[in-house]
Amino acid sequence: AQSVTQPDIHITVSEGASLELRCNYSYGATPYLFWYVQSPGQGLQLLLKYFSGDTLVQGIKGFEAEFKRSQSSFNLRKPSVHWSDAAEYFCAVGAYTGRRALTFGSGTRLQVQP
Amino acid sequence: DGGITQSPKYLFRKEGQNVTLSCEQNLNHDAMYWYRQDPGQGLRLIYYSQIVNDFQKGDIAEGYSVSREKKESFPLTVTSAQKNPTAFYLCASSGDESGNEQFFGPGTRLTVL
């Protein structure tokens, strides 16, 4: 079964600083990988996804993520954080076969300082 | 606009009562999902349905039940057997062949009094 680890529960960055949120996954083959963002009391919005091909994927709101097979990682990055980026971020992994449902990490809460 | 709706947004229940959470989608998606979210635990899968009139248990199905009589609807019943029902419940749907890219509703917060 697949699993996802987000080692950072809470991260604080200053507005304008760069951001990297870590995600490590466990899966026996190349997985589907996703990053979602959630504002308080809201549903999840898809930021970006990786299915195959180019390992650097671009998403909405200026986010990008890089798939590194050798490290089983899919870290999310943004070069310059805006105050509106404060939210909770979830990494998720999906499978090509078997149960077609996502497995989520426990999330990273991002706080942005002025 | 296409999307997923969940109602109500907030729900209060007395202990020992069953309660049903609504989830409707007009995206023409075949697959639908229910997740439970607790602080610090991410999302955990309760039930999912890949086609009408069929559904499977997820990781934490005990104390919950679902039905999938229509493609656009996937209601979740939280029964009195669910020991800790207070949580945020999210419904999602998927239309791709892998069933992986999922779109989420706004959620229902259930509080047991």
Question: What would you say about this model in short?
Answer:
Chain A is an all-beta fold. In chain A, 0% of the residues lie in helices and 51% in strands.
Topology:
The complex is a heterodimer of chains A (114) and B (113).
Chain A: E1 3-5, E2 10-14, E3 19-21, E4 24-26, E5 32-38, E6 44-50, E7 56-58, E8 64-68, E9 73-78, E10 87-94, E11 103-104, E12 108-113
Chain B: E1 4-7, E2 10-13, E3 19-25, E4 31-37, E5 43-51, E6 54-57, E7 64-66, E8 76-78, E9 87-94, E10 103-104, E11 108-112
Parallel strand pairs in B: 2-11
Antiparallel strand pairs in B: 1-3, 3-8, 4-5, 4-9, 5-6, 7-8, 9-10, 9-11
Order of helices and strands of chain B: EEEEEEEEEEE
Mind describing the biggest β-sheet of chain A?
Answer: 6 strands, mixed
Straight-line N-to-C gap of chain B = 35 Å
Structural class of chain B: mainly beta
| Cα gyration radius of chain A (Å) | 14 Å
Q: From the structure provided, what is the oligomeric state, counting identical versus distinct chains?
A: heterodimer
Greatest interface by residues involved: A-B, 25 and 30 residues
Succession of helices and strands of chain A: EEEEEEEEEEEE
Low-confidence stretches of chain B are none
Shape estimate of chain B: globular
Radius of gyration of chain B, CA atoms, in whole angstroms: 13 Å
Low-pLDDT sequence parts of chain A: none
Describe the sheet with the most strands of chain B: 7 strands, mixed
Q: Number of helical runs of chain B? A: 0
- Rounded to the nearest angstrom, the distance between the terminal CA atoms of chain A is 41 Å
Measured as a percent range, the helix fraction of chain B is under 10%
Number of helices of chain A: 0
Beta fraction of chain B:
over 45%
